[in-house]
Prior knowledge:
Rossmann fold; Conserved Hypothetical Protein Ylqf, Chain: A, domain 2; six-stranded mixed sheet
Amino acid sequence: MTINWYPGHMARAKRQVIEKLKLIDVVIEVLDARIPQSSRNPDIADIIKNKRHIIVLNKCDLADDIITDLWADTFEKRYDVSAIPVNAVNGVGLRKLLHCIGEDRDRIAAKRKEKGMLARPVRAMVLGIPNVGKSKLINNIAGVNKVKVENKPGITRALSWVRLKNGIELMDTPGLLWPRQNDQNVAVNLALTGTMKSGIGDTYKLCLYLIERLRDIKPDALEERYGIEANEDIERIFTEIAERRGCILKDSEIDFERTCGLILSEFRMGKLGKISLEKPEWK
């Protein structure tokens, strides 16, 4: 798949993040719970270095619960990083996240008190690649739409602060990609979940790949949603979905664009069930 991977503003955003990190107490790294590995910027660890670090497995409502728990366990045991499943839309998991940040606030207050200094808010920076839900997360925590949210990669250009009443300050940041992407599986996973622009690459091939993956990891999702046999050839499955959903042109030919849009949209919206495309390799 061909992706305009590293727009010019990404390098500028990275410099801004590095510059502001000296003000930050804790970094909140937001990942897509369906693809935690593919949605993780491998440069983040080098950028934040030894800063206190919390991982948010966002969109957990769309991912397999058991696999999400395995990912959380993997991050905590292998990397010694707190990992919290969250749904930034309805607020699931936010209480636990705020509790973790609050512990950092209390720790900082205790240290400052020992030195005869007044307490101050804990400062948390929210990081992640484009379109994983950083701004929605902040908006839900704040209770108001203080950060403009648009479903377009990299649209949050400037670093902005949101101050909460409970002694927490959150900094929103632009989505950060890494300069080179050579892993085709990562590119495909990002495209399937809508993390990258849906217009990239060959959507028909992308759709066939999704059908093949679903046939392997969750065949009942296809059978229950579309009433078809999932053990058939993937192109035949695509054709049957088109026919059953009326995605047919006037000349009785399949409307490929409409069928692709339907399948990808329903997968991304969770209408095929809670599906994870990646499992942790380490247990």
